[in-house]
Amino acid sequence: MNILAIETSCDETGVAIIDVRDSTTIVRANTLASQIEIHAPYGGVFPALAKRAHAEKITTLLIQALSDAELLEPQEEMHTLTNELAFLSEKESVLQEHLLPFFSYYKKPDIAYIAVTVGPGLEPALWVGVNTARALSIVWDIPIIPINHMEGHIIAAAVEKIDEQTYKHKPLAFPALSLLVSGGHTELVHIEHDGQYKKIGQTRDDAVGEAFDKVARMFGLAYPGGPIISKLAREWRERSVPNIFELPRPMMYSGDFDFSFSGIKTATLYAICDYKEQHGDMNEEAIAMLATAFEDAVVDVLVHKTYKAIDAHGIETVIVGGGVAGNTHLQEVFTKKAIKSYPNLNLLFPEPWLATDNALMIALAAANQVLSEHIKTAPSETLRADGNLSI
Ligand code: KG4
Ligand code: ZN
Fold first, then answer.
1. What is the 325 CA–ligand 1 centroid distance (Å)?
2. What span, in angstroms and rounded, lies between the C-alpha atoms of 184 and 364?
3. Could you give the C-alpha distances from 17 to 31, 110, 219, 265, in angstroms and in order?
4. Quick one: what percent of the chain has pLDDT higher than 90?
5. Cα separation, 54 vs 25, whole angstroms
6. Residue among 151, 91, 90, 93 nearest 117 (CA)
7. What does the alpha-carbon distance between residue 298 and residue 290 come to, in Å, rounded to a whole number?
């Protein structure tokens, strides 16, 4: 059974096509267009620019994905749509301009479901994906499976990779816990059984990815700063020299499962000011040292609180998901502790390229619904994007 998936929640436009068989997903197409260059000058994602870029790119990605999956077939006769897509003309004129010719040139493909991210994320950006899914659903008469972006991050870390094209949806040992760490979220989610999510903790201020990006900006590094800080810190640690910086670990012993990262960020800023007062501008070495101290503090808090939740809830499986899940120091510290004190814990991380936003994770979340026979479709007429959607 083929599923076409769409992701436009932030600054990556993605269209993927998978074929779901037994407990296996075969990837037939996985396209992604990054907007990093568009947003880099602003040091963060600019919603109106994100919306426009998604609207300009998504039809090209649809064509690419259908072609990669060998599902793109021209219409025998040019097909003119009447007013089925009138809803696009008001707020999605750019999307409409690209989608109308697409529908008149190409036939309905062999697709059983359209999966789309409906939230959380930047609402103007989400709407492009949602309206594309609605248009495809109306014209092709294919049902829509709305997907929570955070569930996509969880499933992307929970599937087992067999080879480049094949993923296995293996049964997990429950109760499970997911630590979700991305540019917009930092959450601990308790999973009693497949699909039964309950948030037990979250950040009270910045998301951890956001803190990485803001600290990188203080150093004058490019956006997104997470991977750059991570690389600087890795290289610094390899040198095994003492670090002159030490940063606080806010809320580490707060007794609940919430987080706070704005304090570490502010402490980093003060450390930069102090250093400059005493030594002048920060050289590469000083930046790498402070970046390491920042990463140490963040990772310590994340790992400490997650293991607290593991103890409190008798957790069997931990799934770390979201862009920051690709952080190698986080993975190492987590894994070391599991090996030392939790030998029976199943600790799951996504492949690095599947950790950051993409459409395959949305397809995999839909595949999970199909395989567990709990498919939740939604009518295209009433489908909405919800920037604050909770898990
Ligand atoms: O999940 P994601 O692609 O987008 C959101 O849903 O937000 O996460 C992007 C975030 C960015 O803040 C980026 O800086 C951070 O993940 N990130 C990292 C690493 N790779 C991406 N942060 C720390 N270390 C990394 N290796
Ligand atoms: Zn994400």
1. 8
2. 21
3. 9, 11, 40, 40
4. 91
5. 26
6. 151
7. 12
Q: Which residues line ion ligand 2, judged by CB < 5 Å?
A: 182, 357
DSSP string covering 301-369, please?
HHHHHHHHHHHHHT-SEEEEESGGGG-HHHHHHHHHHHHHH-TT-EEE---HHHHSS-SHHHHHHHHHH
With both helix axes pointing from N to C terminus, report the angle between 284-313 and 262-279 in degrees, rounded to the nearest 10: 160
Structure tokens at 2: 């083929």
What are the angstrom distances between the C-alpha of 182 and each of 77, 124, 224? 46, 19, 12
Upstream peptide bond of 175 is cis (omega within 30 degrees of 0): yes
User: CB of 14 closer than 6 A to ligand 1?
Assistant: no
Ligand 1 atom at minimal distance to the Cα of residue 357: 3
Peptide bond into 109 cis (omega under 30): no
Q: What is the rounded CA–CA span in Å between residue 149 and residue 40?
A: 23
Find, among 172, 75, 124, the residue nearest to 371 by Cα.
Answer: 172
Q: pLDDT tens digits for 195-243? A: 899 999 999 999 999 999 999 999 999 999 999 999 999 999 999 999 9
Amino acid at 250: P
How many whole angstroms from 8 Cα to the centroid of ligand 2?
A: 10
Smallest-distance ligand from the CA of 323: 1
Residue 328 CA: nearest ligand 1 atom is: 26
Alpha helical stretches, state H, the chain: 36-39, 47-68, 88-91, 93-105, 123-140, 149-158, 208-218, 226-238, 262-279, 284-313, 328-341, 352-355, 360-371
Q: pLDDT digit string (tens) for 338-378? A: 999 999 999 999 999 999 999 999 999 999 999 998 999 99
Enter the tokens of residue 10. 């932030």
